[in-house]
Specification:
CATH topology: Rossmann fold
Number of strands: 7
Radius of gyration: 18 Å
Order of helices and strands: EHEHEEHHHEHHEHHHEH
Strand content: 15-25%
Number of domains: 1
CATH superfamily: P-loop containing nucleotide triphosphate hydrolases
Shape: globular
CATH class: Alpha Beta
Helix content: 40-55%
Length: 260
């Protein structure tokens, strides 16, 4: 079964895969195949060290070891990465109706959809923006206002409601948590997964929604009142392995079950 990663341009869809595959950071999730070296060759510009934008829909079979409460399991999934322009460029959607329809049909055929959502400008802390790697260009004014952020989330939820009726698992990750969590290590520990038992996923979901999505409660409520599928909320960052692994640990039992 497939996992689709969606999100606007430069939100970090490809870099999330690269970080997840990095064996030196591995805790409970290990990407066995393809290995990190092969992914780096394909997705990192050797001259700049940057991750080039995704230009087309890409499908990548993954073999992953996960440490679950019942022991280590091996899962197979298909990572589908998508260009951010497809989701946010209305002109492209209008000018390419057949391709846009095909993308939405593909979206609806998957086990899970993970939306990477950037923080809005009032969430971020200027001191954390200044500490971002110098190769990454992020300015507070480039981020959405709170109102624009809520409106953008509403559009994503409309898409989920209209075009994801067959998708079993919808996940929203408030990404780049290192821009709004003053101590990303502490946040990772706060939401840390423990295979022998610990905070259950419904508690992660409740905490994240209450801490970061209160401004969007109305649009989330409207989405559910129209019959939208349940959503699991996470915060993620490529600078916190604990946070980055959580969506995959959540999805792994469902992938195992669906492959039987």
């Amino acid at each position: 079964m497939s996992i689709v990663i969606v999100g606007d341009r430069a939100v970090g869809k490809t870099s999330t895969l690269l970080a997840l595959a990095n064996p030196s950071e591995r805790q409970y999730v290990q990407v066995i195949d393809p290995n990190y070296e092969n992914l780096s060759e394909n997705y990192i510009n050797p001259e700049t060290g940057d991750t080039p934008p995704t230009r087309a829909v890409e499908q990548l079979p993954l073999l992953i070891n996960v440490d679950l409460p019942g022991g280590q399991k091996q899962i197979r999934a298909v990572w589908m990465d998508t260009p951010g322009e497809y989701w946010e460029n209305k002109d492209w959607q209008t000018q390419n109706p057949s391709a846009w329809r095909g993308i939405k049909e593909t979206l609806n055929q998957n086990l899970g959809v993970i939306l990477l959502l950037p923080p809005h400008r009032d969430m971020v802390q200027p001191s954390l923006l200044n500490s971002v790697d110098i190769t990454t260009s992020i300015n507070k004014d480039d981020l959405m206002t709170p109102t624009a952020w809520v409106n953008r989330l509403a559009k994503w939820l409309d898409l989920f409601n209209q075009d994801c009726s067959q998708v079993e698992h919808l996940i929203i990750c408030l990404h780049k948590a290192d821009l709004f969590c003053s101590n990303i290590a502490l946040t990772g520990k706060q939401f840390q997964y423990k295979p022998g038992g610990g905070t259950p996923f419904y508690q992660f979901n409740k905490n994240v929604r209450e801490m970061y999505f209160t401004a969007a409660e109305k649009v989330i409520h409207n989405y559910h009142s129209r019959g939208g599928k349940p959503i699991q909320f996470f915060v993620t960052s490529t600078k916190s392995r604990s946070l980055l692994e959580l969506p995959w640990l959540y999805l792994s039992p469902y992938i195992l079950y669906s492959s039987r």
